[in-house]
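Side project, low priority. Logging it here so it doesn't get lost.
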Amino acid sequence: MATTRRGDAPVLESAEPFLGDDDAPGSAAPPAAGSPRPTFEGPATIPSTQAVRYLWGDEISGEVSDWIYASTDLIHMIVWALPPGGKCLHSDTHRTVFGADVTYFVLGGTLVLANPENGEVRVAEAGECILFRRDTWHHMFSHGLDQLRVLEFFAPPPSTGTSRKYAQTRPPLEVVRHANDELLGSWPLERPEPTLHLRTAADTLWRRDGEALVGIAASTEHLTVGTISLLPGQHSSSEAHGGDETLYVLEGVLNVRTERGDGVGWHELHPGDGFYCPAGTQHRYSNIGDAIAKAAFGVAPRWR
């Protein structure tokens, strides 16, 4: 039975089992099954223990473990994982090509991301991010001795038909390439326009937000993704966004003050916890602890 609970608990829009139709990076059952889309009635802490567990894939594509934190009408945030040497490809049922902007923020391990349509390959380490856009095929590989864990932001979200439903409208990929031999003999003198955009600290758009240091890794018309860090005793400015915000705590303890017509909220977040802040909600981040607090966030569709 679907559950509806107020406060920090999600509203799950489909019944168990949570396998199916339209989730990113995919689903583990035929399209007839329901899919988990945790939504919230207001600002909400999402403890890591409350993230919805989900298994994507099949024997051909490979299987990926998902933790779905939030999947609203504006943004989708999950963590997915692969074991050392693991991979996620695609099958006819599970096509990895979507109608959305997607970012992969590496939490741990080494991500090798390939576009099997053109042979482009990127490598991202912990703290780095890769953006790809609509109609970009992608295969994921865990190329390290540690488990690969990736924080994913996806917008427009699966609830708008941009995930599995969209993928099934795309032509199947007939030839798979994990290298581009055409660049041999001309690299790096010739560089084709990338489809997989690797974002490192050197590529970040840095800004001060009150006392907080904010780094924008990527910002499109659909999605803005970045990090926020606060030293002990620091606070961000109070602001409201033009879209839903989801956040994942990377280290330290982060507090969030929210202000709405129904009153003031105060939330405490620990590493691995998520947070959901609806569009238009005034909020401020604070670090009242004795260690640095850092989080990754996504806002969709508009920052302002």
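Brief comment: The chain has one helix and 23 strands.
Revisit when time allows.
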